[in-house]
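Design a sequence for this backbone.
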């Protein structure tokens, strides 16, 4: 069968630390010893039948955007960039007025899973960052696992600000996945919140469950029931994915039988493209007149 357009909502890419391009001195350990660079990502996507992906520089590389922006600008129908930003700097908040002129940029990432989260939020409010992102239409991609009230408060305070909940706000595999995503349902009332169903295999007991990973199917059903298919986005977090990429894609393409064709197409990629106003992958698909060939695992 012909698969829907598949867009991956998050893949970290980075380069090795070198004297010309050093990592921060206090960098955390990377998710794997060798860098994940764009040529490898392209090959993985081709094998799995993925048409496009959002690229994000990891925290251990520092607040760098050069590699992801360069890759997205060079191939905007295949890659978009989620950027790091100095959210506590008023001057950088004002720079958002011109963000659409930054080739390849699709969103800004806030990592709120460690460190002084309250301080980071206070600084972003004080600098005018959230207000500017709302005013200028900059989508945010926020990872704040377990902090459901944080998402609620931001959605209420900035109702025009588009906020994607990264990795379904989950961080560990200490409880069943469907149970872990259930608290998100109370955020569905806020139309400016969407959920990235990304990195989900990282939160499974893989010793007890193999492909096609029915726990992922159940979790996606719960999210779609709450948010609608237009606010749930497939994603992998490929650099730390503990299962074959193609197996995860196969779950979304072939193992969501309770979703109709339109819903499946939205979750697999069209909803993400609409949320970000990322038209290039759709234009490429329309120009060729063909989808990608589905892979059955």
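Sequence:
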């Amino acid at each position: 069968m012909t698969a829907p357009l598949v867009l991956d909502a998050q893949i970290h890419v980075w380069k090795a630390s070198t004297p010309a391009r050093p990592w921060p001195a206090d960098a955390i350990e990377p998710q794997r010893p060798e860098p994940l660079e764009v040529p490898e990502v392209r090959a993985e996507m081709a094998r799995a039948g993925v048409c496009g992906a959002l690229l994000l520089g990891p925290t251990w590389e520092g607040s760098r955007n050069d590699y992801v922006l360069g890759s997205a600008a060079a191939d905007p129908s295949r890659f978009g960039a989620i950027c790091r930003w100095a959210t506590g700097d008023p001057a950088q908040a004002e720079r958002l007025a011109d963000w659409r002129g930054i080739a390849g940029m699709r969103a800004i990432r806030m990592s709120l899973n460690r460190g002084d989260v309250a301080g980071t939020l206070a600084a972003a409010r004080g600098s005018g960052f959230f207000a500017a992102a709302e005013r200028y239409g900059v989508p945010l991609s926020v990872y704040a696992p377990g902090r459901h009230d944080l998402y609620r408060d931001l959605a209420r305070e900035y109702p025009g600000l588009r906020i994607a909940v990264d990795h379904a706000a989950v961080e560990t595999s200490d409880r069943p996945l469907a149970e872990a995503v259930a608290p998100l349902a109370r955020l569905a009332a806020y139309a400016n919140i969407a959920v990235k169903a990304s990195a989900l295999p990282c939160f499974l007991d893989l010793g007890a469950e193999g492909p096609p990973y029915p726990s992922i199917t159940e979790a996606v059903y719960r999210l779609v029931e709450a948010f609608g298919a237009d606010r749930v986005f497939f994603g992998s977090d490929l650099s730390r994915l503990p299962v074959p990429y193609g197996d995860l894609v196969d779950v979304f393409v072939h193992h969501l039988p309770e979703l109709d064709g339109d819903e499946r197409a939205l979750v697999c990629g069209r909803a993400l493209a609409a949320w970000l106003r990322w038209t290039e992958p759709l234009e490429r698909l329309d120009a060729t007149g063909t989808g990608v060939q589905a892979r059955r695992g």
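The domain at 7-288 is CATH 3.20.20.140 (TIM Barrel).
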